[in-house]
Amino acid sequence: MVALRRTADRWSTCGWTGMSNYQVWDYIIVKREYGVRDSFINHVLEIVGDRGIGYLVANAAYLPFLDAYGPIGALSDKAEEVDAVLSELMRINVAGNIHLFHVFLPLLVKGEIKKVIAISTGLADLDLTNDCEIDIGALYASSKAALNVIVAKFNAQYKKDGVLFLAISPGLVDVGHYADATPEELQGMTGFVGKLVAYAPHFKGPISPEESVRHLRSTWEKASIEGGFGGAFVSHFGNKQWV
């Protein structure tokens, strides 16, 4: 998702009719296929011209079901599956975002806001994992932890150019991933939620995508290099409170 300032009427000329109804008309959502980098960036340049872009939000990710509900020990007899899933996680969640950042950096440097937001996960937080014994999603969490390091490395190089790189967890969001879960899988999920309740007694369960986006947007709009957010990994609240 690439953000720039547009007027609602301009969306209709680009085939984005009705976007203003959802109050997201100042965003362009783009899809990059591997192997078509030049045509991809040229398409974006046709839209933004020399103005650059304000925000780059890296939201796409691979979320496997192999370890979504169980601990890492449950994978002990699934060596080939672990290798395949972890390889795909690193290809998409880590390498894919490295390529994405590289593609858009020239446009970000030209922009006024200069913010790169990587959507991470609270499962990648070591304190939460150890203190609350969060044992599910080990492979997915490891890929997001790697992404967090990549965000910090980009920050280390580009903060002198005024580009903010920030990893944010969206919270536990209800996006339908668990609709087809088996009773056994739901039991694992219930155990996870129970640990979150013990960690944060106010926690009432997964939030809606709309609520998550409101928090995310508030956090990334307030975040700045001067405020200490460069290369950081925070929750949707802008701190280390994960739910």
UniProtKB/TrEMBL annotation:
One of its GO terms (molecular function) is oxidoreductase activity, acting on the CH-OH group of donors, NAD or NADP as acceptor. It comes from the Eukaryota. This is Short chain dehydrogenase (AtsC). The lineage of its organism: Eukaryota, Fungi, Dikarya, Ascomycota, Pezizomycotina.
